[in-house]
Amino acid sequence: IRVRPLSGSEKKKTEKNIIQFPGDGAIWLDLGISTKSFTFNVMFEPEACQSDVFDNCGMTRLIDMALNGYACTAFAFGQTGSGKTHTITGPPELVQPDLHGLIPRSFQYLFHLMKKKPTNGYRIRASYLEIYNEQVQDLLNPSQKKQLAVRWSKDSGFYVENLFSIECESMEDLMAVLEEGLKNRAVGSNSFNEHSSRSHSMLTLNIDSEVADPEDENLYITKHGKLTFVDLAGAEKTKTSGSENNFPTQEHITESNNINRSLLVLGNCISALGDSKKRNGHIPYRDSKLTKLLADSLGGQGVTLMIACVAPSGVNAVETMNTLRYAKRARRIKTKPVIKMDPREKLIMSLKREVKILRSENHYLRQQVILKQIQLQNNENMHLSNAYYI
Ligand SMILES: Nc1ncnc2c1ncn2[C@@H]1O[C@H](COP(=O)(O)OP(=O)(O)OP(=O)(O)O)[C@@H](O)[C@H]1O
User: Fold this and answer.
1) Are 146 and 269 in contact (CB under 8 A)?
2) In this structure, what CATH number is given to the domain that contains residue 135?
3) Which of 124, 233, 342, 369 is the most exposed place for a label (fewest CB within 10 A)?
4) Whether 218 contacts 244, CB under 8 Å
5) What Gene Ontology terms describe what this protein does at the molecular function level (predicted)?
6) Over 80: is that where the pLDDT of 238 sits?
7) Percent over 90 (pLDDT), the chain
8) Are 17 and 91 contained in the same domain?
């Protein structure tokens, strides 16, 4: 959980801070008539800086796992203006490195790790999309006005057809991808946030690494890791949000309705996955493009880091309660992470393992045969010597 500081305008309106941190991951919410208490894995108080969040939220472990072939996702959720973009990207201009969010810091850490790990090489391909009004747009190919289709295949699950992906060899390449995407992303302003994200964005790095099989140095295997950063559009009440002049336009109402609908589906999926009785039943991934694309991260074979962002002021109490309730449910979700490998290489590896097991079994049986022969020989010799004495 990350709690942002009171904003300038909240301070001006002398909004009350309703959040307290008693320690050990606990958070208390002062609702006037009662106090609600929640406990989470990690709690970032308003004073926490961007590097505190990166170092302690589990992101470094996630990057390490992505390099080892797992599909990993980091995403922020919470109401509009609660600090999701600040946490995932940092201020959109990206000019102040100390304010950089998880994405630029992860790029740096990724290259640092790649230099340290012994491999035959890495290949990184980046893609960046947004879901705006239930339509998928390619942020790296904005001239392509046609919306992209979300398809399903047995091998890859849900994926976006014809999504542009760029091969990146350096930190500069990755930063250029981020800058390009941010430039093309749909933003607007509402009464809570001057630079509000009006779309859900997904930046994905496909990381292929060729590593030697620990059991056979001559055999190289390719692992297909994935690292996805998701910055969700913020839930908001259509009636109260509005644009700068506080008067919601039709465009704004459509945007808000689409954002709220897809977040509702995400909430339904999280609720079902977090409930042991419903987990194995129908999960409504297909009800929105966002949940289709997050299906594997939420309930499949991926590893997911969720950061719930909340505002500390009393005026946001209801939304903060909602976010914390979702986060509580999300904590109960269990995925079954597996390393993604080329199916052919996977088969070769499993056959090699089988050969190894059969060889050791063969070795054991040969030894047993030799032992039996020695025993027989000894018995025969005994008979002969006994016969001699008789
Ligand atoms: N931890 C923080 N420290 C300092 N400023 C913050 C922090 N979190 C958010 N802010 C500031 O609060 C404002 C709103 O944050 P941000 O744009 O990240 O919200 P959001 O949740 O992404 O909103 P939306 O859903 O509308 O896009 C920004 O000006 C941002 O710089």
Assistant:
1) no
2) 3.40.850.10
3) 369
4) no
5) ATP binding; microtubule binding; microtubule motor activity
6) no
7) 49
8) yes
